[in-house]
Amino acid sequence: MKQTFVQDIGQQLQSAVFSSGLTTKLICLFCIIGYALSFSSQCVQALAVIPGRVMPPNFWIWTFLTHSFIELHIWHTIIDIIVVFLYSKMIEPLWGTHELLRFYFIVTIPNAVVATCIYFIFYGLTFHEEYLFERPIYGLAAFLGAFSVVIKQLMPDTVLATTPFFKLKQDQVPLLMVVLSVILWFVRAVPVHFLIMFSFGILISWTYLRFFQPHQNGTIGDTSTTFTFASFFPSPISPIISVFANTIFEICVKWKLCKSFGKKYNVASSSSITITIPGPEAADADRRKQKALKALNDRMKQKETTNENWPELDESHQSSLHAQDHSTQNSSVSIDLTKSNELTSTIPKEGSNQNFFDTNEQQQQPQSTS
Asked: What membrane topology does the UniProt entry give (predicted)?
């Protein structure tokens, strides 16, 4: 049983690796290279974010771009690669390579800036210089948290596990992962920047997907009720979170940080009016389109296999069958003897006299014998 389970995981990873796009493969390749470079402390200092060296006079701003590829532990690197391959296999066909790459930079770069600011706050509260120079910020935790938000958007009502007490749905995965990160931080399994980056990766990715992501139909964001900020929390406390989130949203709209949701009316046709609501229609249409294309391809493959297995006849056998059919069609004779001894035959024009005398001879032979 264990061997078959390991084989299934290996087959899924193998299919994910071969079917993944260029962006996914480059991210995983840079993660492997970053782990190899992490054995050198000088490379870690040069590629990871050091809050004290980001500010002038050092101004190491390139670390905001390279920090996500650095990992100091092999099991962190393995988890990063597995998650990126499996989730990108679902996301990249829907979004495309350019959108996935843009989403990666939108999540990782602002997340590093936020983590640096939090480290400055920790230094201002404690005056410990280790927050400035001895605690580098690195890893792909922000992107992993963003993946959990994307899967929640694509499959909000998916049930992952069922227990006698509750059902684990995809909506609850981001919050559950945050709680798990807090527990791992308490037991010293992960550093504090992992918890910060994972939590803000969820927040930043949700903000982008909710308000700023462009869709193919010209709409922006996702206004579906299954993707509200309160939907990340359990139902008993979601109304309180909803009031808090709506207040912040109204403040952001007044400050013109984001736009209020609206409907688009298409009145070009006098017979009908088309109403377009931003967000879910584009994503749902893309998902349905991909599923339909996949189902169509599977059916076409099944038809091709059945056609290949269908027995074929030889050309000689087919020609003999056609000749027999042609001869039977030309020699068809119908005789009507209802009224007298008159003979009525329906035959082709060619050879009609010969067939007529043949029938007369056949009738005279029994008379002579009698």
From this structure: Multi-pass membrane protein
